[in-house]
Amino acid sequence: MNELEFQNILKEKGIEVSEHQLQQFQKYYEILVEWNEKMNLTAIKDPREIAVKHFVDSLTVFSCIQPKKEAKVIDVGSGAGFPGIPMKLYREDLKLTLLDSLNKRLTFLGEVSDRLHLDTRRIHARAEEAGRDLNLRMKFDIATARAVAPLNVLCEYCLPFVRLGGVFAAMKGPNAEEELEGAKNAIQVLGCELEEVKTFTLPDDSKRAVLIIRRKKSFSGEFPRHGSKIAKKPL
């Protein structure tokens, strides 16, 4: 995908990027392709598909939320850096924490951060362990995750990071409404409320949704539970 096409697609979503930002996205693409040859970061290799399915998709979150200046954001299960790195490229002021259970992915994210001159914090931990850490628990304005787990499971992984009044922006595919039905209890038990579901169609006609879940009150110290319990018996 050429830069102009990428820029125009984002403009249609209400997202304006500068020439410098376009160059940063190009560099991110190049680093991703380079590292993908030695470790499995993404099955998508076509430049246009990466631009649409990773970059544009990640940035749709800004059509739903307008973070305050220097908002604290945690990207849970960052993987190859989506949506966290595109969010940081668009809003460099964001205080971004990238959380992943696999150290080699964090090494890649460190390389991306260094080469793109991005100030990011990287944490090697499982989400359910990090969610019990008092330095991280209820400390973030925004938690986000993309393609990590079903929503009822994802809520217990991500909502513990969200401060009072903060939001969890869950990035989902075409079955978001279905998943939401199964996650209503988890959202309530963890002291939150669904605020908005916004749906999108990407340029390749794939359907996406961003669910905005806001923290209204605190929640029991028993959560998040151990990962095996979350998987076996979701809330």
Walkthrough of the structure:
The chain contains 9 helices and 7 strands; from the N terminus they run H-H-H-E-H-E-H-E-H-E-H-E-H-E-E-H. The chain is α/β, with parallel strands linked by helices and 235 residues long. A 7-stranded mixed beta sheet has the order 3-2-1-4-5-7-6, with helices on both faces. Helix 5 links the parallel strand 2 and strand 3.
Features:
seven-stranded mixed beta sheet, globular, 235 residues, 40% helix, 9 helices, 7 strands, alpha/beta
First-last Cα distance = 42 Å
Number of helices: 9
- Average pLDDT value? 94
Q: In percent, how helical is the residue content? A: 25-40%
The ordered string of helix (H) and strand (E) elements is HHHEHEHEHEHEHEEH
DSSP, total strands: 7
Any low-confidence stretches, pLDDT <50, length ≥5?
A: none
Percent of residues in beta strands: 15-25%
Give a quick summary of the entry:
The protein is an alpha/beta fold and 235 residues long.
Secondary-structure map:
Layout: H1 3-12, H2 19-36, H3 47-59, E1 72-76, H4 84-90, E2 95-100, H5 103-115, E3 120-124, H6 127-130, E4 140-146, H7 151-158, E5 162-172, H8 176-189, E6 192-201, E7 207-215, H9 227-232
Parallel strand pairs: 1-2, 1-4, 2-3, 4-5
Antiparallel strand pairs: 5-7, 6-7
